[in-house]
Specification:
alpha+beta, Beta Polymerase, domain 2, six-stranded mixed sheet, 4 helices, 6 strands
Length: 116
């Protein structure tokens, strides 16, 4: 699976689980850390935790294993090598504002991957 395909799969999982304000950012030109970041918000701490667990579970079912690098209150980071998934509660997302930090990166058009 290519990094782009993995990114799209993560976006679909998060969308299916009702994540809020999902963004996919191609950061391969800005950093060697990853090719893509997926950023999403949950509506509560419970929802945020559930979103991260669902991504982990569904990808593991396809043999894709990642590492949980952080489970801070309000921010969970899942590292899949070429794709890093950031799941925030709303307050933490506003505070860290990763979209601003990576504003020179390419934001992918994921509208075709999201349900109405």
């Amino acid at each position: 699976m290519t990094p782009r395909e993995l990114t799209e799969k993560v976006v679909k999982i998060l969308d299916k689980k009702k994540a809020v304000d999902i963004k996919a950012i191609e950061v391969s030109e800005q950093t060697i850390v990853a090719d893509y970041f997926v950023i999403a918000s949950g509506t509560s701490n419970t929802h945020t935790k559930s979103l991260a667990e669902d991504v982990e579970y569904e990808l593991e079912q396809e043999g894709i294993k990642g590492r949980v690098e952080g489970r801070a209150t309000g921010w969970i980071l899942l590292d899949y090598g070429t794709v890093i998934v950031h799941v925030f509660d709303r307050e933490s997302r506003e505070y860290y504002n990763l979209e601003r930090l990576w504003s020179d990166a390419n934001i992918l058009d994921i509208s075709g991957l999201l349900t109405d």
